[in-house]
């Protein structure tokens, strides 16, 4: 059985930048993006991954397995993390990710992806940054997915993605 994990309220309400005047990434900075996964998203992911598990496509199969509805692929949900990072740091190279799947994500759930910088290290004019990663469901504190990611960033200047402006 999956254990319920909750995200602290301050991460839901925190600003994206270290200070109002700075767009330079610092330890503790939080970046967020929301997304609702559709049936079309699940189908598209299955076409690329060849993961046609009936839990993603057949409501009766999902219910027989103990789920409320059809599931979104966990790896599709986790794809929010490199998306969030690369949207703020074009040219970022995503080098590692650990994942813990805590609770199911159903088609139509509103998911908030959160990445928080935990360590920064400069090396050869680039930056190795470790991020804590979390996805929460439906404006609650329920964590559906968490872990850590490491990315190599070309610089620490955060861009405000045009789709968020």
Automatic annotation (TrEMBL):
Residues 34-126 form the MaoC-like domain. Transmembrane segments: none annotated. It comes from the Eukaryota. The keyword Lyase applies. GO terms for biological process: fatty acid biosynthetic process. InterPro entries: HotDog_dom_sf (IPR029069), MaoC-like_dom (IPR002539), UPF0336/Enoyl-CoA_hydratase (IPR050965). It holds the Pfam family MaoC_dehydratas. Keywords: Lyase. This is 3-hydroxyacyl-[acyl-carrier-protein] dehydratase, mitochondrial isoform X2.
């Amino acid at each position: 059985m999956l254990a319920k994990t909750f995200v602290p309220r301050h991460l839901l309400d925190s600003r994206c930048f270290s200070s109002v005047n700075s767009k330079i990434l610092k330890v503790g900075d939080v970046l967020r993006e929301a997304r609702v996964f559709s049936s079309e998203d699940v189908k598209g992911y299955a076409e690329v991954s060849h993961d046609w598990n009936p839990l993603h496509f057949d409501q009766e199969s999902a219910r027989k397995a103990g789920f409320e509805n059809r599931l979104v692929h966990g790896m599709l949900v986790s794809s929010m993390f490199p998306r969030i990072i690369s949207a703020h740091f074009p040219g970022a190279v995503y080098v590692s990710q650990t994942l813990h799947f805590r609770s199911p994500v159903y088609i139509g759930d509103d998911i908030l992806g959160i990445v928080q910088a935990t360590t920064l290290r400069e090396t050869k004019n680039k930056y190795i940054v470790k991020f804590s990663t979390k996805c929460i469901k439906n404006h609650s504190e329920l964590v559906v997915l968490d872990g850590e990611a490491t990315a190599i960033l070309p610089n620490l200047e955060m861009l405000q993605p045009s789709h968020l402006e």
